[in-house]
Design a protein that fits this description.
single chain; 274 residues; mainly beta; 15-stranded antiparallel β-sheet; 11% helix; globular
């Protein structure tokens, strides 16, 4: 009887340890801004501009990653609802399809669970002009954003993800520099083509006791077309809500540069397939 109880106790402990280990694994991937795991996501965005115009986006997405964590690609399809502060010929409050977003990540260097340089990731984001730009739901042009992201881990619980990216459009767009290619509800006419050079320094700290994470993200963008600078500060809070699912909230606040976009609030839910 004692032997049987001992076996059950050992099995219970091993099962709990395996569950805890799985939780930690998926928490790391959920907190990673360039996660290479296959997952589905739902993002809810709220964009608030200085002129009090605003729009909201519901954006489901699917991202497929190879098992070796060297390549990932995905697509997100946004539905946009606009609330304009002005006379736009009856289109002040409309809902419809936004610009479809496609992304790809490639990892030429990866040394897992190391202190120091852990990973180098090449990234490419492409936005298709599927949203109606005259209604403020799209940029009205193909938009491309290649870049590179470095993963550097000074200690196991903290990681930095410095990145540099260049965003450009094929033609003139309904978007202004510094707002990452999103529609500009202040003026639904097209402006110049995008040419945005951005630098970011995200820092993510794991909160093991809470089974979550906290992040600080500083973003600097230089609009080469407008010759102006923009600085945003983003804070992230995330938590595992299941063995493979996580929820987070991200708040970005404009802090310097040409005042236009004021606050972005993003709620995210992610479910990892494997």
């Amino acid at each position: 009887m004692k032997t049987m109880k001992g076996r059950w106790l050992l099995l219970t402990v091993l099962t709990w340890c395996n569950f805890a280990y799985s939780q930690n694994i998926y928490r790391d991937y959920a907190a990673d801004p360039v996660s290479m795991k296959t997952h589905m996501s739902i993002d809810i965005y709220s964009y608030i501009f200085h002129n009090e115009s605003q729009f909201y986006t519901l954006q489901p997405g699917y991202f497929y990653g190879l098992k070796n964590e060297k390549f990932l690609m995905g697509m997100a399809i946004p539905v946009v609802h606009n609330v304009f502060r002005g006379n736009f010929a009856g289109f002040e409050n409309t809902t419809g399809l936004g610009d479809i977003k496609m992304s790809a990540l490639y990892v030429p260097y990866y040394k897992k669970n190391t202190i120091g340089l852990e990973r180098v990731t090449f990234a490419l984001d492409v936005t298709a002009p599927t949203g109606e730009y005259r209604l403020g739901r799209g940029a009205g042009s193909w938009v491309y954003k290649p870049g590179v992201v470095i993963t550097y881990r000074p200690i196991p619980e903290v990681a930095f993800y410095p990145e540099v990216k260049f965003q450009f459009s094929g033609t003139d767009v309904n978007s202004r520099g510094g707002i990452d290619g999103i529609p500009d509800p202040d003026n639904t006419e097209k402006d110049k083509a995008l040419q945005n050079l951005s630098f970011a320094l995200p820092m993510v700290a794991q909160l093991e006791d809470w089974d979550g994470w906290f992040g600080i993200h500083i973003l600097y963008t230089r609009s080469l077309a407008e010759k102006t600078d923009f600085i945003f500060l983003r804070t992230d809070f995330g938590k595992m809500i299941g063995e493979r699912s996580a929820a987070s909230i991200r708040i970005s606040k404009f802090i310097a540069g040409q005042p236009r976009l004021n606050v972005i609030v993003q709620a995210n839910f992610s479910f990892f397939m494997r």
